[in-house]
Amino acid sequence: QVQLVESGGGLVQPGESLRLSCAASGSIGRLNVMGWYRQAPGKERELVATITSGGITNYANSVKGRFTISRDSAKNTVYLQMNTLKPEDTAVYYCNYVPLAGVARNYWGQGTQVTVSS
C-alpha cells in the first residue's frame, strides 16, 4: 500500500504564491511518475504537472511559466511551487503516484484546497 499526504494549500490573493508538498510512504517503486492534478467545483479533474523519477517534467499549458514541479527522491516527496496565482487556479489539488514497474495502478492523496481570491 502507498499513502500520499498533501500539504501547503490555503487562501491567497491573486499574484501571490504557494508551495504544495506531497509525501509518499509505503512500497515506493524506484521507477515512477509523481504529479499534481486539480479539480475545481463543477469541473473535471485535470493534470497540472508531472515529474518522473528521472527528473523529466510536464506541465499543463495553463500553468507553464508560473508553476514548477520538483522532487526529493530520497524522501519520496514532490513539490509544486505556484507563483503568480490567478483566481482560475482555485481548486482542490491532488497528489498522484504511478509506479512504472510491478503492479500497475494509480495512487491519490486526499487533496488540499487552494483558493485564490481578493
List key phrases describing it.
118 residues; mainly beta; seven-stranded mixed β-sheet; four-stranded antiparallel β-sheet
Termini gap: 40 Å
In terms of per-residue confidence, which ranges show pLDDT below 50 for 5 or more consecutive residues? none
Mean pLDDT: 95
Helix content: under 10%
Topology:
Blueprint: E1 2-7, E2 10-12, E3 18-26, E4 32-39, E5 46-52, E6 57-59, E7 67-72, E8 77-82, E9 91-99, E10 107-108, E11 112-116
Parallel strand pairs: 2-11
Antiparallel strand pairs: 1-3, 3-8, 4-5, 4-9, 5-6, 7-8, 9-10, 9-11
Describe it.
- The structure is a single chain.
- The protein has about 120 residues and is mainly beta.
- Helix content is about 0%, strand content about 55%.
- Strands 2, 4, 5, 6, 9, 10 and 11 form a 7-stranded mixed beta sheet that branches.
- A hairpin with a 4-residue loop joins strand 7 (about 65-70) and strand 8.
- The relative contact order is 0.32.
